[in-house]
Amino acid sequence: MEGASEELERRSRYLSSLIQRTKLKPDGEPEKRRQQPAKPDKEKHRPHRQRREKKEEERDGDVDGGEDDAQEQRQNVRVRAADMPPALQKRAFRCARETLAAMPKLDSKRLALALKKEFDLSYGPAWHCIVGTSFGSYVTHSLGGFLYFSIDKVYILLFRTAVEPLGH
What we know:
alpha+beta; cytoskeleton; cytoplasm; Protein Inhibitor Of Neuronal Nitric Oxide Synthase; 4-stranded antiparallel β-sheet; about 170 residues; single chain; motor protein; dynein
């Protein structure tokens, strides 16, 4: 199981780097890569797992932009894998948090439906959402249309597939 988790994280990092390389500025020119500050030498001596966990904490803490700190602490959002622009990720987090807050008890189908409807209406058809506490998946998704995240112990997989019109 640990090997599968590491593979998923590796793929997530790869997809994120692809997104960063292909991201465009509003004026149409490719965005310059952000240089990260040099890490202290003691960072290199940490075990690999601790460095990875620290990076995940830094990344996860900055995703929401800090708008609802109190609510964020109650509902711990953690990105597991992503190939989606940050603005869409934030929208998914907000929609999921609002829907969960409106439920006295987790209703996975209702949460999945709310996310699917939100994304279908806002970004076009063919969005799919899987919600649960334990599931496996292997999906094909459109470029820039994949997000796997968790809020507390609820795991959410949101992805988009290409839709081709029927040729009758």
